Each structure stands twice: as structure tokens, then as C-alpha cells.
Amino acid sequence: MTATDPIPDTTAADLEAVLQRAAGAAESFGALPPAERARLLGAVADALDAAGTELLPAAMAETNLSEARLTGELKRTTFQLRLFAEVLAEGSYLGATIDPADDGFALGPKPDLRRMLVPLGPVLVFAASNFPFAFSVPGGDTASALAAGCPVVVKAHPGHPRLSARVGEIISAALSEHGAPEGAFGVVFGFETGTAALRDPRVKAAAFTGSVPAGRALFDIAASRPTPIPFFGELGSLNPAFVTPAAVRARGAEIAKGFVTSYSGNAGQLCTKPGLLFLPADHGLEDALASQSREVGLHRMLSDRLHEGYCSRRAEVTGVPGVRVLAEGEVSDGTVPTLLTTDVQTLLANRETLLEEVFGPLSIVVTYRDEDEARQAAEAFEGNLTATLHAEEEDSEFGASLLNRLRDRAGRLLFNGWPTGVAVSPAMQHGGPYPATTDSRFTSVGTAAIERFLRPVTYQNVPQTLLPEALRDHNPWNVPRRVHG
Amino acid sequence: MTATDPIPDTTAADLEAVLQRAAGAAESFGALPPAERARLLGAVADALDAAGTELLPAAMAETNLSEARLTGELKRTTFQLRLFAEVLAEGSYLGATIDPADDGFALGPKPDLRRMLVPLGPVLVFAASNFPFAFSVPGGDTASALAAGCPVVVKAHPGHPRLSARVGEIISAALSEHGAPEGAFGVVFGFETGTAALRDPRVKAAAFTGSVPAGRALFDIAASRPTPIPFFGELGSLNPAFVTPAAVRARGAEIAKGFVTSYSGNAGQLCTKPGLLFLPADHGLEDALASQSREVGLHRMLSDRLHEGYCSRRAEVTGVPGVRVLAEGEVSDGTVPTLLTTDVQTLLANRETLLEEVFGPLSIVVTYRDEDEARQAAEAFEGNLTATLHAEEEDSEFGASLLNRLRDRAGRLLFNGWPTGVAVSPAMQHGGPYPATTDSRFTSVGTAAIERFLRPVTYQNVPQTLLPEALRDHNPWNVPRRVHG
């Protein structure tokens, strides 16, 4: 294959083979000691790092993203794989819990009960377009599912097919070289292939990052299977940011600058882009916001399809009566950010248009008349990945009342910062009430992402030799355990 | 109302009021310190214990269950409420995790991140018929949701409406007396009421224990809402038990006795009833099994509807060619257990009839010719709540190969025991792959049941005064936390 051949859709026969291999690998891959899977993840990370000089140009060619951005993203991606290796080495992800037999228990003799988490089985990952490494073939879904002990089948995103194919080859080779069972990882191509895989009984869970309509359609397939499976969709988010009057007074110019950097970066193609900035009516930052926005250079979007979608949504939002342009922007050959403004009442009267994500470099400054109106706005949201508050000590009571309302509608709350840039950390939550995600109880970034692909099993009075290692008395894997009684 | 008035269905207007109060209570109830909610759970437990002499006859009248059984069940129910009070007092259920800021972090400066679990909001509980206390109005779903900080609306089971109404009054009075916000708890009646509540946007999660068709219909409603919600359905389970030849030799008579006690107890109306017993072809226990079964006394089923359903399924299963009667049983005015027998090949050839739960006192002894055939049978199951193995040290390799297969198909694995009787313990898993439950990652019994009704929120760089107590530096609630870095 040369660099310009198209990547054909995976055939039904090839998909069948991939799924059969994944199902066949589930038992042995899941049974590997965590330290072994940690070694495999490290090998994948090393192989991807080693291939950087090949992968970065490939990613640039297919995504219009900058070398600096992609270099950082690849680093983050291999960091993430190694972080999950650490999670495996540490072992508390297994949730091992031992409750010894107790003949004197209040409700009558209690048996010996030992509980731990086991892998769900083959996981289908729908790759995203906007992070060709970190949320694509080698991304967080793949890393966390492999860490959990689940074979992974990635449905590649059509936005960067050759990069996906090449990364898939590198991962498969690294796994195979280091002794992973054949079938623990595979990449498939094509829309129909993805939905066929999602319907296949051998697939036990799926993860997705993308738009609300696509994510909801896939969620509906997963939920309507004869045997429904967990579907972790990260869909759309407005990521509102609220600024109190005192914060405007104390740091108005800095806030304007930070906001523009956050909403316009990567041509606004981030799930945590702040799509709405709430300012007091007399904020006086219009000129600063407009001029900062105009200073952002031209950036081509990830694909023509996304560019068209952006143009259409931009026209729709700009056309709402009561919405005014602060910075016109450009949408010809690439994009320069567009900044709009309106007030809370116009926003609330046009929820269907204005309270829906615009994927691209557009944001709306919304002015509130008083604290009550700001609180009213904070109650208008559906679920979000993030919500941000800029406040000062002197108006912390108002700030607290906003934060409280935002907490019910978001998975991450930021103070005096901006939501873009998601740290890969044990305390990260990248998820939120619908439609931010289809299951707000889980995260797709950070070490807790592994929890999505595990389920508990309890062993009752099972003798030592038949227990899994993590539950045996002498704890051969030396995993942290909760022992009761 | 006198003891014989029917309980009318909740009107649409009354349901609206109940849901509005529940939504109104969500913030204040969820914000109570865990120790406060622990006190409320204790007060509910005390009130139910104090009402035992009134509640037990009421339960007996509506369920045909014995006083001894119901006395034990009420004790278990109040124990469970107090156990969740302990979970709250201990505090690790909050999953508080602190990852301090790190300017030298590998991927660039990392903010201060603090993560904890918060309540989902109002939970709808569909009560079960077979445990009028422990899986009904005051049961595990209610206890765990209240513990999580979620207001609870119980849709009462029509099998014991007056008991449900009375228990609801007692719980509401205890909560109100001890200062819970109005609306933290309510009971509603009627099928249409339940489905209307499930569709209501104020309801944020639902739990159900019952049959596969009913549970699946409700799951489908929950998943197809404009905003889908988590639905925890505990549906049907066959609970297969496998006995190795060495176990038959060592303890055949004891196994026969234990099995009959387990499958026939409470007229077989338990979700963990062993519905299939796998024995080697030459087991020689037919007479023992048949005579033990015949010795079980007449037991009326919970309701006429369940009795009719049982008679119809019993006729269907008994009519399969190749299925032979070991103990005929009775189904006239009440039931005496029915024990059938067949072989693995007949079982596999009639999956649709024989590999589906019979709710009532019937079980099937299935003979296997050799180890391979037993393993083949162990691979035939869909999801189960439990799977059981009886083995001896001398055939532990065969046992291990069975256990391995059963692990992929069950939430709890028992060794040389019987699955009925579910200990309320931190290490319990009462859940399993579909159709045992609609979400195998969670349990409806044991302290981990609280995890169903919580979601994570991360606070990024939020100052001490705006942080929830559990995440503040000085840890005023003194909850266990994971602190990184």
C-alpha cells in the first residue's frame, strides 16, 4: 500500500475473524497477572514513542493539527499507557475485599466471602477525530480497557485512517512481540463495520467519543441488543464559565485573554471548549474579547465535514435575533474564531439553538443583569463535562450559589481557570450528566477510567487452590485488600 | 381505611406532588453530613423494629410466607439499614481522592484536583414481591439510595399493598421526626404510576427486582428516555450447581438433602434458587432426591398470579420429550416441589424451554456423561446471579475448569454450599451478567450497593471555603481519602 491508497472498509469476513480472535483472547489475556499486562502496556508505549518521527507527520497530514500540539498529544498518550501500567502494578484497581467466615454473625453464620473485579471481555472502542492519538487508536479507552484485561477492537475514525492503520500495526506488533495472546488488539474500518461489531454478542462493552447524534445512535444500539452492554459515550458539552463582578474588576483583562485562548485553541475542536462565558452586564470587556479573538490566526479544521458542520451551526447561532457579533471571524479556507454576545433572557428563549454545542472556534458571551439571573442561567443547563467559576473572596457567597447549581450539571468544576487541558490523574473526572456522557458514573480520562471495564465476582467458601491469586490468603500478587471482621 | 379496603393507584396529581417533593429534597438531603443520614437510617430501622408485632401479621396475610421466615427477613432488613449507617459513618464510600497541584508534572503543570462521589438525585425503586421487607419498601435498594443521599420514591408491589403502605408511613414518620427534608421518601401505587415515574425527568436512577420480561420493559423505558438514566434491574437467574463424581462419592446423601432444601425453600420463590443440578450419569441419588422432595410440605405461593405462572411453566418444562419426573409434586391448593431429570444433550437441544427460569418450587437434575459434557453445559449459560460447584480435592482440576467457565457467567461462585441465603456483607456480589441483572458492574445486596447511586465530581483549584467538607485540607468529616503525589 502506498501513502495515497485509500483504506478500505473492513469486510464482514475480516470483522468476523477479528471478533473471533478477540473473544478467543479474552480468557488468557484477562488471566495474565497485572504485572504482565503492565509490561505489555509499557512495550506499546515504547513502540509508539520510538515511532514518533513516522507518526507525527502522518498525523499532521490527516488532521491539520500542529506538530507542537501533536507532539504533546503523543507524549500524553504514551504517558497514559505507562500510568495504567502503574495502576496495574499497584493493584488496588482490583477492589479485592475479604470478609472472613463468621459463625457468630448477627443474622446467622456467615460464609467466607471474597470479592474482586474481573474483566468484562472484548471492548469495542470508537475512536475520535479530534485527538488522533489520545482519544483514538492508542488512546485512553484502549489503554484502560487493555489494562482491565479486556481485548480491544478499535473502530478507526475516518478522519485519520492511515495513521490509525499504522498505529494499529505498531500496537499489534508490540503486543505480539511481548507475548500477548493473539487477538488482544485489532483495528477495523468503516461505519457499517462499527455498528455490526456493536451488535455482536462477543462484544461486552463499548466506548465512544464524538457528537451527540452519533453517540446517541450507538448508545441506542447497545441498549437495545438482546443482551444490552455498557456503552460509555462522551458526547457534547457546552462547558459554561461564569465570572462574578468582583472577578471582572480584579482580573478582567486576564480573564478575557484566558477565555479566548481556551475557546479558540485547536480551532475550538475540544470537548472541553468553553462555549458560553457569563459576564455581568456592565463588564466592559467587549473590546478586549473582540480584539483578542481577531488576533488568533487561521486554523484549518480537522476535516471538510466538520468544517461544513461548523459553518452551518455558526450561521444558525449568529442568526438568532438578539445575538450580536463581537468578532466576525472567518470560515473560508480554514477558520478564524467567531465571538458572539447576547443576554441571559435571549439565551433562555432560544435554548434549542444556543444551548447546543457548536463544534469549532465559536463562543458566546452572555451577560446577566444580577445574581438571580446568573443563577437562573446556571440552572438552565443539561449535563456538561465541565463548568467554570471565576470569583473573588468578596463575592464568594454568590460564587458558592453558582457552584452548587453547576455541580448538579457537570463532572468537573474549575475555579479561576479554563476547562481545556485535561490532566491525566487519579482525581480526574472527564464525564458528566447526559448529554456530556451516557453514564455519568464513570470517567474516560484518568486512572478511574479502568473501572468501566470491570465487574465484581464474589467467591463464597472457595478453597485456596481454586481462588484467583488476588484473593488467596498469602496474597501472591501483593495487592492492596480490604479485610473485614 | 379498614384492613380490607383496596389501596387505590396513585393519581397523576399525587405522583406529580411526590416527584416534586423528591426533587425539592434532593439538594438538602444530599448535602446532609453522612453522620446525619446515618442517624436517619438508624431511626428508620428502630421504627421498623418497634412496629414488628404489627408488620409481621400484615406481611403474613399478604404473602403466605411463614412467621419465622418473615421475622428473619425483618431483622435482616433493619440490620441492613444500620449497616449502611455504618458505611456512612466510615466514609470511604465517598471515594475522596486528592491529587495536589504539581508544577513539575511530566506533562506540564498539573492543577490541584480533588474528586469525590455525589448523589445522583431522586431514585425510583420498584419493589419485589418475594421479600416483602428486604427487597420491598424498606429494602436494600431503598437503604442504599437513601444512604447515598438520594431521595427515594418506591413503587409498591401489588402483592402486598397494605404492608407497603404501612411501612411507607412508618419510614416517612421516622424520617420526618428526625429532621429529614420533606420529600426524601415516598411510596406510590399502580403499574401506570410506576412507568410514568420512570419516564419523569426528575427521576435520576431506578432499581428493580423481578422477572425478565417486566425488568427488560422497564430497562427499555429508562434507556430510551430523552435523558437515559441508570437502571439496575435484577431479573432472572438459573443458578446452576455442578457436582463432581468425587463429591457424589464423598457426600452424595448430604448433597441431595442440601439441594432439595435450597431449591424448595420458600416455595422456590427466591432469585437464587438452584434451578439446575448437574450430576454425573451414574450418580445413584435419584431415590434420595425424589424422597427428600416429596417430604417437603405444602406451601402456598406469594400470589395467585405467580401460582398460575408457575403451573404454566411447570407444564411446559415437564412436557419436553426426554424430561422425566423424579418427584411429581402438587400444584392444587398450594405447591409441593416438583423435581425433574434429563441429560445435558436434551437440555442443550431445548434451551428456550429448559434454560429459562421457573419461578417456583421446581428444579431439574441434569446428568452429564463425562467431564467434557459437563464443561459444555457450563458454557451454555447466559448470565446468572450465582453458580455453584461441589467438588473434592481429588477432582479439583475438573472443578477448576468448571469454575472458570462459570465465572464468566455469574456474579457469585459458591463452593460446596447452596446459593439461597445471601449474606449482607461488604464482599457480597448480588448481580451478574444479563439477564441476571441489567448492569453486571453493580450489586443490589451488600454495602457496595451504594455505588449505584453516586457519580464522581472533580474540583479543580477550588479554594477551601468552596470545597465540600470531604475534600477540605483539614478533613472535618474525617473520611478516609487517597492522597497522591
Core attributes:
16% strand, 15 helices, oxidoreductase activity, acting on the aldehyde or oxo group of donors, NAD or NADP as acceptor (chains A, B), 485 residues, Aldehyde Dehydrogenase, Chain A, domain 2, alpha/beta, Aldehyde Dehydrogenase, Chain A, domain 1, five-stranded parallel β-sheet, globular, EC 1.2.1.- (chains A, B), Aldehyde_DH_Superfamily (chains A, B), seven-stranded mixed β-sheet, homodimer, Aldehyde dehydrogenase, NAD-dependent (chains A, B), Aldehyde_DH_dom (chains A, B), 2 domains
What does this structure look like?
2 copies of one chain form a homodimer. In chain A, α3 (52-63) crosses α4. With 485 residues, chain A is α/β, with parallel strands linked by helices. Chain A has helices at 12-31, 34-50, 52-63, 67-90, 140-148, 161-177, 191-199, 212-224, 245-264, 286-295, 304-318, 344-349, 351-354, 371-378, 396-407, and strands at residues 97-99, 113-119, 123-126, 152-155, 185-188, 205-209, 231-234, 240-243, 276-280, 324-327, 338-343, 362-368, 384-390, 410-415, 454-460, 482-483. The longest helix of chain A is centred in the N-terminal third of the chain and has 24 residues, at 67-90. In chain A, the strands form 3 sheets. In chain A, strands 10-11-12-9-8-13-14 form a 7-stranded mixed beta sheet, sandwiched between helices. In chain A, strands 5-4-3-6-7 form a 5-stranded parallel beta sheet, with helices on both faces. Chain A has a 4-stranded mixed beta sheet with strand order 15-2-1-16, with no helix packed on it. The mean pLDDT of chain A is 96. Chain A is globular, with a radius of gyration of 24 Å. In chain A, α6 (161-177) links the parallel β4 and β5 (185-188). The first copy, chain A, has 15 helices and 16 strands. Chain A has 2 domains: 12-235 and 438-483, Aldehyde Dehydrogenase, Chain A, domain 1 (3-Layer(aba) Sandwich); 240-415, 3-Layer(aba) Sandwich (Aldehyde Dehydrogenase, Chain A, domain 2). β14 (410-415) of chain A pairs parallel with β15 (454-460) of chain B, so a sheet runs across the interface. Chains A, B: GO terms for molecular function: oxidoreductase activity, acting on the aldehyde or oxo group of donors, NAD or NADP as acceptor.
